[in-house]
């Protein structure tokens, strides 16, 4: 069945949770507090991983609090109506999550001292993860084939818009002292070091044992077993676990198992064009077989 996306200012959003009103409110009227921390990503870049890391940093590595609080309260998804309601009554300091492109992000942020953590991931792994996710999540159109989904992704014709535009726009804020960029690949390569850098950015001093607890509780295995993270509590008509697994593989480079040589060359050509001026800025571009 065809899914009708919510279109707001030219960008499609999955229906059900998002509405034009909630997106407009988030952009133009959402009241940002100076001690807010926003977890911002393009879909499938490690959003839930970062939510878990940030909330565990906040609880000084204590997983009990994370387990006790509903996800919608722990880190409200404030571009949706449900998330907006939760965010507005949420005590400070808030942790807020979204996939909003920069141009739709709350205007009030730009005159505030609130912080943003922006996580970016190799777009080839993003498109593979997005393809599998779209097959299991009912708010997304079931893709016809991987080849078709890849073309749609490269054109920016997928929910939340173009990866290239999302990343390029947010990257303009690099260097601002209230915006922190990190990649999925850095988290994979050095989770402990990444947690330490995040603590520094957030101004939170944690003991070594607390840091170790954050790292242990945010390993792929630990999160896969944690029903606050693995989406298994969602009903089948929202997330069909028989059609896939939300915490699917959790690796870098799975795109190599999905792309043909021709797709990989085509992707590289478009990537070079669309990321002109930024080439060399991201970890997936550095390795010997970066494609
Ligand atoms: P894969 O589909 O490649 O496995 P998001 O939360 O933005 O939707 O991103 C989901 C992706 O992040 C999935 O990628 C998921 O497995 C991965 N992920 C989530 N938690 C992770 C963790 N602790 N370690 C590694 N990858 C993780």
From TrEMBL:
Q: What is the lineage of its organism?
A: Eukaryota, Metazoa, Chordata, Craniata, Vertebrata
Tell me which species this is from. Answer: Sphenodon punctatus
The family line of this record is: Belongs to the sulfotransferase 1 family.
Sorted alphabetically, the keyword list is: Cytoplasm, Transferase
Q: Which SUPFAM superfamilies match?
A: P-loop containing nucleoside triphosphate hydrolases (SSF52540)
Subcellular localization(s) per the UniProt record: Cytoplasm
Where is it predominantly found? cytoplasm
Give Gene Ontology CC terms: cytosol
Q: Which residue numbers delimit the Sulfotransferase domain?
A: 34-278
| MF annotations from Gene Ontology | cholesterol binding; nucleic acid binding; steroid hormone binding; steroid sulfotransferase activity
**Which GO annotations describe the biological process of this protein?**
3'-phosphoadenosine 5'-phosphosulfate metabolic process; cholesterol metabolic process; negative regulation of cell population proliferation; positive regulation of epidermal cell differentiation
Q: Does the keyword Cytoplasm apply?
A: yes
Keyword S-adenosyl-L-methionine, does the record have it?
Answer: no
Q: Pfam families attached here?
A: Sulfotransfer_1
Protein name in UniProt: Sulfotransferase
Q: What is its EC number?
A: 2.8.2.-
């Amino acid at each position: 069945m065809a899914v009708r996306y919510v279109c707001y200012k030219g960008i499609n959003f999955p229906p059900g949770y998002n509405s034009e009103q909630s997106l407009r409110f988030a952009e133009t009227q959402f009241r940002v507090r100076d001690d807010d921390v926003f977890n911002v990503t393009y879909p499938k870049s490690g959003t839930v991983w970062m939510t878990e890391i940030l909330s565990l940093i906040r609880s000084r590595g204590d997983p009990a609090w994370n387990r006790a609080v509903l996800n919608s309260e722990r880190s409200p998804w404030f571009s949706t109506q449900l998330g907006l309601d939760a965010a507005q009554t949420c005590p400070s300091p808030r942790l807020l999550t979204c996939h909003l492109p920069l141009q739709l992000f709350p205007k009030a942020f730009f005159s505030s001292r609130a912080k943003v953590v922006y996580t970016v991931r190799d777009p080839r792994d993003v498109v593979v993860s997005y393809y599998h996710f779209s097959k299991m999540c009912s708010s997304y159109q079931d893709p016809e084939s991987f080849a078709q989904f890849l073309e749609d992704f490269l054109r920016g014709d997928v929910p939340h818009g173009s990866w290239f535009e999302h990343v390029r726009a947010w990257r303009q804020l690099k260097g601002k002292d209230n915006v922190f960029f990190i990649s999925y690949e850095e988290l994979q390569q050095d989770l402990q070091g990444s947690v330490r850098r995040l603590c520094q950015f957030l101004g939170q001093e944690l003991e070594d044992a607390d840091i170790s607890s954050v790292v242990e509780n945010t390993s792929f295995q630990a999160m896969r077993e944690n029903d606050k993270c693995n989406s298994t509590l969602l009903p089948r008509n929202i997330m069909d676990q028989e059609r896939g697994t939300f915490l699917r593989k959790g690796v870098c480079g799975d795109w190599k198992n999905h792309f043909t040589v021709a797709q990989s060359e085509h992707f590289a050509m478009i990537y070079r064009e669309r990321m002109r001026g930024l080439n060399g800025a991201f970890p997936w571009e550095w390795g010997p077989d970066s494609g």
